Amino acid sequence: MKPLLHALIVEDSQNDADLLLRDLESSYYEIIHQRVETAEALCAALDRRSWDILFCDFTLPHFSGQGALEIVRKRDLDLPFIFVSGTMGEDVAVQAMKAGAHDYVMKNNLTRLIPAMERELREANVRRQRRQAEEDIRISEYKYRHLFENLGDAALLIEMETGQIIDANPQAEALLGRPRAEILGMRENQLYPLQRGHALLSSGVREQRIESNILRKNGTIVPAYVSVSKFDFYDRHVLLALIQDLTNRKWSEKKIQEQSNLLELAHDAIFVCSLDEKIQYWNKGAEQLYGWTAKEAMDGGFGKMAYEDRTSFETAKKTLLEQGCWSGEVRKLTKARRTVVVASRWTLVRDGEGNPSSILVIDTDITEQKQMEALFLRDQRIELIGTLAGGIAHDLNNILQVIITNLDLAISAPTFNENLPKYLDDASQGAHRAAHLARRLLTFSKGGAPVKKSLDVAETIIPAVLLALSGSKLKPFFAFQLDLYPVIGDSIQLTQVIENVVINACEATPQKGKLLVRAENIDERNPASADLPFGRYVRIQIEDRGSGIPESIRDRIFEICFTTKPGGSGLGLATIRSIMHQHGGSITIESVVGRGTIVSLMLPAAAHRPESPVAAVPPPVVKTTGRVLVIDDEEMILSVVGSMLKTLGYECAVALDGVEGCNEFMRAKADGNPFAAVLLDATIPNALSGEDALKLLLAVDPDARVILCSGYANGDLFKEAEQLGFKAVLAKPFSISELVPVLNKVLSPS
What is the third-level CATH fold of 627-747? Predict the structure, then answer.
């Protein structure tokens, strides 16, 4: 198949054009042509497409061949232009050639047409190839220059034969401290000792990397990393030397080494681990504290097994990922499986893109410190109980005097004495005061856990404030938010908190004044306190305009036994903080000397509102023929509780210890007359404790309805009563009115 040839013919005569085409068709090409005869048509044809060759008559009626040549030249087209004329003289032809025509052929002698055409097509093709080569070289030069000058490192181009530098980029100028003109022509061994590398490259090695010292113009030495490679550049053998300034890296390495040495000298355990707890760095302090060498730790010896409590670890890790840091006390296990307590500080390390990559941990061993604190607190508690003994004995004796006197009067009174109810009521009130005193004392003991229930804030606060202000010159003002959340707490302990705070306000404000009591909801969208998790709280604020607390003692006001009052015990604020902590809340104090104090109490909100009490109306009793077993180590308790139960219509059996009680329970079940409920003391002595007795009772009868009773409200036992299997809890002392609803609940068919 012949190659196509696009020919443009400028000719006014169709016959002459046909003669021309007849000759062209005998050539090697398949001709595609267009004939035009005006300047406008010529321009339109040139605009429409590109052409391989143009044939033009010299003499035209509408414009001249010279005009056609001018149009082509103005467009700067490399288009072979051949005149084909019947009247063109030699002198005119010479002028036309000078003007830019490539050749001319006479119409009466077309034998030269094909050779002239093929020659011009070849020459046009050579010109195109040359232009393309020049363009390729220009683009290549541009790319080279652009890449060379924009390299991140200093770059030198060195002629291998002479060792002379033939090019340098701006980064090389900056590194060497010399302008490009000065660098060109220098030998590379004037800048850095590369003779050995040069020789290696000359022997056939194509690439080499070395560290070297570069000499700057001012005489300073720059540590550098030099990468040398060999290639051909425009028929010349050259070396490309890329030079990276190592000054900052060397400085950083030195600092890192210094810091690493310091970390190794640190007494704290310092290590870095990945997010999946694989050790990446382990200092000598960590080795000394935990017993694992760095290799053992990195091989997986220290990891998930090191944490005694995985739940608290996962909670801390979640906080770390959310906030970027975490600190707290952690119990960990050493290689020897010894428990140590550490003050741990975690920092989240991020990569260059800001993504979490690892965790920096600094652990300080506080095991001995915690042991000393425990001993100190134990000794302080013993000393405190001794200090309190006198005051407690005084208060308790006064209460007992009321109870004993009223009971004596009741016993000695005639059968139908009208004062008998009053004697018994006064004795009952005295007994409740004694219970209140015991509950307050238990706040400082191991068993001081609150007996919590849903409480109305106003009903709890207002009576306590008014009672504490009795005889005071302060006037209370209450500002409570509408729809205030109920709180979960122990009414006796929270009353004690309010009374203590108000009494302190009274003592700080000897003159007449105002006491502002505010309460508001803090919902879960707002951070309640730095020490509390997010959630729903009620904030209670008690504000006075008294003398305020001096800054010098503000940090000590919560210390046990710290007081500024003559004859004070220093237990008030310590008690409050203990109670608030056990309630899952907090206390903060803001004070300005001479302007007053604001005490803020934060209490968790209850899920449900408290049930409205029905005053003076005994709760209904569930009528049952079942029996109740009472297990307690106090005969007097067995007697009075038995009397209560018989008064309520129950049959009652008693046992003085866990073994006897369990035997009684099993006999009754075997006889087909099981107990409907069991009242079990939490602290019965001898071989079987209250918790062990419960396990045995439930083993005999998984549906046994056991009620926990104790005058020593152990926090863990009371909190876990339901999980352990108890159906209900009764805190001693309890009244008939408190016993009845518990029995109703436990014995209810539902």
Answer: Rossmann fold (3.40.50)
Q: Do domains 4-129 and 453-604 have the same CATH topology?
A: no
The class that CATH gives domain 151-245 is alpha beta
Domain boundaries, the chain: 4-129, 151-245, 250-365, 371-442, 453-604, 627-747
Handedness of CA 199, 201, 204, 205 (dihedral sign): positive
Write the single-letter amino acid at 721: A
Assign 540 to helix, strand or coil. Answer: strand
CATH 1.10.287 fits 371-442, yes or no: yes
Topology of domain 250-365 in CATH is Beta-Lactamase (3.30.450)
Cα–Cα dist 395/391, whole Å: 6
- Of 728, 713, 491, 715, residue with least CA distance to 603: 491
What is the number of other CB atoms lying within 10 angstroms of the CB of residue 583? 22
Closest CA to 512 of 475, 468, 539: 475
DSSP 113: H
Mean pLDDT, each 10-residue run in order, the chain (750 residues): 86 88 82 90 92 89 88 89 82 82 85 87 89 82 79 84 86 88 83 50 63 82 84 79 84 71 76 86 88 85 67 83 87 87 90 86 86 65 55 61 68 67 73 66 53 87 84 86 90 84 85 90 64 84 88 70 52 74 87 89 87 51 70 85 85 91 92 92 78 90 90 60 86 81 84
Cα–Cα distances in angstroms (integers) from residue 655 to residues 530, 647, 686, 706, in the given order: 50, 19, 13, 14
221-233 β-sheet, strand order: 165-168, 154-159, 236-245, 221-233, 207-215
Helix (H) or strand (E) holding 362: strand 356-365
Cα 27 to Cα 20, 22, 24, 106, 692, distances in angstroms: 12, 10, 5, 18, 118
CA separation for the pair 174, 183 (Å, rounded)? 11
Is residue 730 within 8 Å of 679, Cβ to Cβ?
yes
Helix, strand or coil for residue 514? strand
Residue position matching structure tokens 């002595």: 685
Q: Is there a contact between 300 and 266 (Cβ–Cβ < 8 Å)? A: no
Q: Pick the closest to residue 689 from 661, 719, 665 (CA basis).
A: 661
The residues near 670 (Cβ < 8 Å, ≥ 6 apart) are: none
Q: Residue 330: how many CB atoms within 10 A of its CB?
A: 21
pTM of the model: 0.36
Cβ-count burial 635-669 (b if 16+ within 10 Å, e if not):
eebbeebbebbeebebbbbbbbbbbbbbebbeeee
**Beta bridge partners of residue 230, listed in sequence order:** 239
Buried-exposed string 2-35: b where 16+ CB fall within 10 A, e elsewhere:
eeebebbbbbbbeebbebbeeebeebebebebbb
Specify the CATH number of the domain 453-604: 3.30.565.10
CA–CA separation, 446 and 600 (whole Å): 26
Domain 4-129 adopts which CATH fold? Rossmann fold (3.40.50)
Q: For residue 96, give the 3-state DSSP assignment.
A: helix
Rounded to whole angstroms, the Cα distance separating 515 from 505 reads: 8
d(CA 517, CA 521): 14
